[in-house]
Write a structure and sequence with these properties.
- The chain has twelve helices and nine strands.
- The chain is α/β, with parallel strands linked by helices.
- It has two domains: 135 residues, Rossmann fold, CATH 3.40.50.1370; 158 residues, Rossmann fold (3-Layer(aba) Sandwich), CATH 3.40.50.1370.
- The chain has a five-stranded parallel β-sheet with strand order 7-6-5-8-9. A four-stranded parallel β-sheet has the order 2-1-3-4, with helices on both faces.
- α6 links the parallel β5 and β6.
- α2 crosses α12.
- Belongs to the aspartate/ornithine carbamoyltransferase superfamily. OTCase family.
- It is an enzyme of class 2 (transferase).
- Its EC number is 2.1.3.3.
Length: 314
């Protein structure tokens, strides 16, 4: 059976380091105009099944398939029969019989699990309600570029306990970075995810949980947040804004909390001002746009690994 990529938990620490290193190599080659690839996906089609709209994920995955010589086929929620007149199983069997891989951006985690179970070809998780591994690879590339290494760094998450956090935390502890996670007391990280993070801390890195953002950012080299109100959660807007009072990332938060002198800010976008103010977001401490650009290089690295090579190779 083809190996799929559903979460950072699917990777060993060595495999994750290799994906990051390969992403950086690809980035340097493309930016310098020296990117040479034998078009390993020439004559092949990669299906992109998106049940949710997207900017960075769609652009990066379509671009990655093109860089590898393949033909991306975008299938939005209104383009195919999935969920209307055809079951997920039937759709998976049909699509995987005619394409070389499935990149899927879905809702329930059970959907991406079902796709991977019944597909003949690799399934790449481009986001589900539980995980967002492609984003985490791009984030780790940004941290590697900013600091040169992972060992000894501390990262702080200030925001919601969501899919982006789950894979970001898994990647952090796999690569040897301690992580401190601040979420509102009414929205804690689930026990299931805490256990998964602990089981992936092969390097001895630790994860700390709190509801106090100032506690989380103490000694942090990286401060990260994300959208508080995700797609489909709009009805929770007013309640969430109350719960997240005091969570906006500002220079004052970093100073009062005692962040490291060299701290950087990250956000996977789209960003709203209640999550981080303009002073931080557009400052020299912010690497958000480099982080966003890295989505392309991480997508190329992931597709090259799982679709072309059927596994992560150096």
């Amino acid at each position: 059976m083809a190996r799929s990529f559903i979460s950072i938990a699917d990777l060993t620490a060595t495999e994750l380091k290799t994906l990051v290193a390969n992403g950086i190599k690809i980035k340097k080659a493309i930016r310098s105009g020296n990117y040479k690839n034998p078009a390993p996906l020439q004559g092949q089609t990669v299906s992109l099944i998106f049940s949710k709209r997207s900017t960075r994920t769609r652009i990066s995955t379509e671009g990655a398939v093109a860089y590898l010589g393949g033909q991306p086929m975008f299938l939005g929620k209104d383009d195919i029969q999935l969920g209307v007149n055809e079951s997920l199983y039937d759709t998976t069997r049909v699509v995987s019989s005619m394409t070389s891989a499935i990149v899927a951006r879905v809702g329930p985690h059970s959907d991406i699990q079902a796709l991977a179970k019944d597909s003949r070809v690799p399934v790449i998780n481009a986001l589900c309600e539980k995980f967002h591994p492609m984003q985490a690879v791009a984030d780790m590339i940004a941290i590697q570029e900013a600091f040169g290494a992972f060992s000894g760094l501390k990262v702080a998450w200030v925001g919601d306990a969501n899919n982006v956090l789950h894979d970001f935390a898994l990647a952090s502890v796999k690569l040897g970075m301690d992580i401190s996670i601040a979420t509102p007391s009414g929205r804690p990280v689930s026990d299931e995810i805490k256990k998964l993070i602990a089981n992936n801390a092969e390097s001895g890195a630790s994860a700390h949980y709190t509801s106090d953002p100032l506690e989380a950012v103490k000694d942090a080299n990286v401060i990260v947040t994300d959208t508080w109100i995700s797609m489909g959660q709009e009805e929770e807007t007013q309640q969430k804004l109350k719960e997240f009072a005091g969570y906006q990332v500002t220079m004052d938060m970093a100073a009062k909390g005692g962040a490291a002198a060299n701290w950087k800010f990250m956000h996977c976008l789209p960003r709203h001002k209640e999550e981080v103010d303009d002073e931080v977001f557009y400052s020299d401490r912010s690497v958000v746009f480099e982080e966003a650009e890295n989505r392309l290089y991480s997508a190329i690295a992931v597709l090259d690994a799982f679709v072309v090579n059927k596994g992560v190779v150096e």
